[in-house]
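Here we describe the complex-level prediction in full. Unlike the single-chain runs in Section 2.1, the two entities below were treated as one system.
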Amino acid sequence: MTDLVLARLQDGLADNRLELPRCADCGTLVWYPRARCPHCMSGNLVWEELSGTGTVYSYTVNHRGQGEYAGHDPFVIAYVELAEGPRVLSHVDSADVRVGDPVRLRGGLSQEGHVRLTFEKEEPR
Amino acid sequence: MTVRIAGAYEHPLRRIPDRTVPQVIAEVAYGALADAGLGPADVDGFFCSEVPGLGSVAMSDHLGLGGLSYVDVTEGGGASYPMHVGHAAAAVAAGKCRVALVAMAGLPLSGQGTTGGARGPEHPYEAGYGITTPAGYALAARRHMHEYGTTAEQLAEIKVAAAHHAQYNPNAKLRDPVTVEDVVNSPMISDPLHRLDCCITTDGGGALVIVAEDVARTLPRRTVKVLGHGETIKHSEIGRLDLTHTGAAVSGPRAFAEAGLTPKDVDYVSIYDSFTITVLMSLEDLGFCEKGKGGAFVTGGTLRADGELPFNTDGGGLCNNHPDSRGGMIRTIEAVRQLRDEAAPEVQVPGCRIGLVQGHGGNLGFRTAAATLLLGAEDA
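The structure predicted for the assembly as a whole is:
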């Protein structure tokens, strides 16, 4: 079975674009991606490229990972609030993260092709 | 019509290597029925979460439940059992059944946890991060700290109170008192949550019997009134998840309204303590203190048996028992003990008349079920 919605997100991420479905009827930007709009039920969803920027809404330095992260050095799991609104689960590749830090998407897929949004801190200008 | 809890039973063991899950469910179900002065042939309503076999069918057969007229398999993780009590109370009040059994068990330490089933729709979007159960709660704790200035030392006060109570429970898994320093100096699991901010995992289970008032009048033991119930699912809001509230902000007011009570009326609380942050946020959401002031509220022994708002006097899931990583059943059972005046003497709340149970299931960092019960002593 192919999940066409998941595949669509992965296709964008493979080209380093973060694209999410927006409901053409009510305007809701949908995270996580779905085939129907959970706000108004519409199936009229249009994929839209996002800026790939956001800020850290919350984070944890995880000392006890699971699966391939078992025994891994401590690593940062965060919710990043995208500039366009949704709060997405992510990795932040930095040892020094604070709530509110501006971040930018660096990559979206693991080596195996699974969704793994990875952000890095934006350098202050 | 007032519906009553007439029987309660908590399995005394915390590691059970030599029995199956159905066998332990039978032990706790028969324990609760015996406590009520009833037997399996009297049961006409059965309420459970995921149990071995098809729905509730195989376990009803295994338990020999007689003449079932109402069954309900509601899965809300650790919140399932206060949900079941609410559902059972509604079914009894509607005349659908008169003697309802709620039972659960799991043996995760023996590799027989019951949680599982098909992956949820969110799985491809959340599974790739190495996230753990504590990490989800840590995300909630970090945001609460950011918005309200909550500290690790304040969270630790919750574990200190639970451990103080556990020393009086001979069946508790962890019986040693701890200090705030012990908690904040314990190994970091998922920053800001330390090992002693985390619940234990145990084998075990528990059961409750809910009956109609006319049945209660025929029984020998003291019963507990079900005064109010509320439940909800708090979800991720299409990506606009708020990490600083629990579902108790919705289930709590509904339960208080149904009971015609306010937080000031409550003598004792059983709060699902999967992690210290779960308790702190629940207390705020239930209205025991202002939102964001939970840290100050729990500081200074507030939650101890001799404090302003005694909580989890058996030691809770942090110290006593957390079978199958589902805390709602044992939390409800300790509230029943308090309202029957049968808690350990060192932690019994004198004249305890109104108790509150708060259950949560799932993960506060993602999506959760929440259920609130307001319970009353026999003369309340």
